[in-house]
């Protein structure tokens, strides 16, 4: 008689256990690889937007794309002609969806401009463009970036009761700052547990930060010379323009570190001096 061979119960359990162990090892690796791909895609978007801002800066007499009476809110609609794609305004890790409650719809804007740059005439006026934040990551903002009139803060007089625009901020603008005033946006590159940018962290209010950095341990930042850099929240100094390029970051959320005071502590600053 011929006997059919097959797996015993013990052998089957061992095979299943081996597969489970391999899955436990490989799944985190796959997840990290997927997140790295999203980070790279996000960096590509930021690069396009940074180049668009630099082109705008050249075409408009060294001015930045200011969309209202304060800060740089509404910048997205002013550079759209150089980008020509609403998809470039959304990071793959931003869960914000399209707002169809109005027509035309508002699209997610995962990036914000450094509002401090509204105080200078252009890139040439910055002390160290390669160390100065130009664009940083946010979540929760929507705007009609295809129309510069609609992508405008409500203080400019357009539809004040229902306005949303591409945001701006300086990393330390809690309370009634641009990023958190009426856009519903949050900083997406702070340190874990909503402690904010900076060292020491500028904790202006946990409600203005995402729970964790958007890309594992940090987020992407476009610098004013056009290059994009991945940094942790504590490697970016937030706040208003430094009084001097050699000033350290002030405690709390007063002034960002000057561009000559970054070595060994910060990779970038919201100050242009």
State the end-to-end CA separation.
91 Å
Number of strands: 10
How many alpha or pi helices?
3
Reported for the largest beta sheet, the result is:
6 strands, mixed
Structural class given helices, strands, pairing? alpha+beta
How confident is the prediction overall: mean pLDDT?
83
- Overall, the morphology is globular
Strand-residue proportion: 5-15%
Radius of gyration, in angstroms, nearest whole number:
22 Å
Q: What is the N-to-C succession of helices and strands?
A: HHEEEEEHEEEEE
List low-confidence stretches.
none
Tell me the count of domains: 1
Helix content estimate:
10-25%
Biased composition (Polar residues): 159-168
Region (Disordered): 152-171
Keywords: Membrane, Transmembrane, Transmembrane helix
Transmembrane segments: 12-31
Quick structural overview:
With 273 residues, the protein is α+β, with helices and mostly antiparallel strands. The chain has 3 helices and 10 strands. Strands 2, 3, 5, 6, 7 and 8 form a 6-stranded mixed beta sheet that branches. A two-stranded antiparallel ribbon has the order 1-4.
């Amino acid at each position: 008689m011929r006997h059919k061979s097959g797996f015993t119960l013990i052998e089957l359990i061992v095979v299943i256990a081996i597969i489970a162990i391999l899955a436990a090892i490989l799944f985190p690796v796959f997840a990290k690889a997927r997140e790295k791909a999203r980070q790279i895609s996000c960096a590509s978007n930021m690069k396009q937007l940074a180049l668009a801002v630099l082109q705008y800066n050249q075409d408009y007499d060294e001015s930045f794309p200011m969309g209202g009476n304060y800060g740089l809110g509404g910048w997205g609609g002013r550079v759209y002609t150089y980008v020509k794609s609403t998809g470039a305004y959304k990071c793959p890790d931003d869960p914000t969806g399209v707002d169809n409650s109005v027509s035309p719809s508002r699209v997610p804007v995962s990036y914000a401009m450094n509002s401090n740059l509204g105080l200078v005439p252009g890139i040439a006026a910055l002390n160290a463009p390669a160390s100065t934040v130009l664009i940083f990551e946010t979540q929760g903002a929507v705007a009609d970036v295809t129309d510069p009139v609609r992508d405008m803060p409500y203080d400019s007089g357009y539809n004040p009761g229902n306005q949303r625009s591409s945001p701006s901020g300086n990393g330390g603008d809690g309370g009634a700052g641009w990023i958190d005033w009426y856009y519903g946006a949050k900083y997406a590159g702070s340190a874990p547990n909503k402690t904010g940018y900076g060292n020491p962290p500028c904790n202006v209010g946990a409600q203005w930060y995402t729970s964790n950095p958007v890309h594992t341990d940090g987020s992407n930042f476009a610098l004013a010379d056009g290059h994009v850099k991945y940094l942790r929240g504590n490697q970016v100094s937030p706040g208003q323009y430094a009084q001097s390029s050699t000033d350290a970051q002030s405690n709390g959320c007063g002034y960002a570190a000057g561009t000559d005071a970054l070595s060994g502590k910060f990779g970038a600053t919201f100050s242009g001096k």
